[in-house]
């Protein structure tokens, strides 16, 4: 009988994975055009995080938004705060957005990424699982982030499976491919013959 054993090459991988957790976020689109859409574009497509945060803040404070768009704008500003290396501010925005609309799977996944950075792994895992159960738009990010938590908690097989799922969902997802390449699948035979 053979058993599969999953081994990760240990090269400070958790530290590298934590740094990349907040770089892979899922922005939430808003209805229509205007300043809230500009906030979304800044979160989704990059640019200066500070300029994006200013844009999002203006959209939240100075424009009339539906609850759904306001929730999305908080989540998008949280993404920009995370990119600006401010995970505490990001968490505040994710919490505000999810309080307005608790069905935003991306918000849970993004909040989980900030919790990874803050090494709050139990909450990160719960949030990421919630995002997966709500069918977040970019599930590959959710599986990637969950793999980081799995690995940090010593569940190497689950980490391997989650990185693998991230790559299956998005074959060109470079971060997940890089992490997956660290793993080797080794078949061990049971010496007792049982």
Helix content: 55-70%
Largest sheet: 2 strands, antiparallel
Any idea how many domains?
Answer: 2
String of helices and strands: EHHHHHHHHHHE
What gap, in angstroms, lies between the N and C termini? 7 Å
Low-confidence runs: 1-17
Indicate the structural class.
mainly alpha
Biggest sheet strand order reads: 1-2
CATH class of the largest domain: Mainly Alpha
Mean pLDDT: 86
CATH superfamily descriptor of the largest domain: Tetratricopeptide repeat domain
Helical segment tally?
10
CATH architecture of the largest domain: Alpha Horseshoe
Core attributes:
194 residues, mainly alpha, Serine Threonine Protein Phosphatase 5, Tetratricopeptide repeat, two-stranded antiparallel sheet
Nutshell version of this structure?
With 194 residues, this protein is mainly α. 65% of the residues lie in helices and 7% in strands. It folds into two domains: 1-26 and 108-188, Alpha Horseshoe (Serine Threonine Protein Phosphatase 5, Tetratricopeptide repeat); 29-103, Serine Threonine Protein Phosphatase 5, Tetratricopeptide repeat (Alpha Horseshoe).
């Amino acid at each position: 009988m053979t058993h599969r054993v999953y081994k990760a090459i240990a090269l400070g991988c958790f530290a590298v994975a934590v740094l990349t957790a907040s770089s892979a976020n899922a922005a939430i689109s808003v209805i229509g055009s205007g300043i809230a859409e500009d906030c979304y574009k800044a979160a989704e497509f990059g640019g200066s995080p500070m300029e994006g945060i200013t844009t999002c803040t203006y959209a939240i404070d100075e424009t009339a938004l539906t609850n759904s768009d306001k929730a999305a704008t908080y989540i998008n500003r949280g993404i920009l705060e995370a990119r600006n290396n401010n995970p505490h501010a990001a968490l505040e925005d994710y919490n505000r957005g999810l309080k307005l609309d608790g069905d935003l799977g991306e918000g849970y996944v993004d909040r989980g990424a900030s919790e990874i950075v803050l090494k709050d792994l139990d909450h990160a895992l719960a949030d990421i699982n919630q995002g997966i159960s709500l069918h977040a738009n970019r599930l590959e990010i959710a599986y990637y982030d969950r793999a980081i938590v799995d690995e940090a908690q010593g569940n190497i097989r689950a980490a391997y499976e989650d990185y693998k799922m991230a790559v299956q969902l998005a074959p060109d997802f470079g971060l997940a491919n890089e992490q997956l390449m660290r793993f080797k699948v080794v078949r061990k035979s049971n010496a007792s013959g049982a």
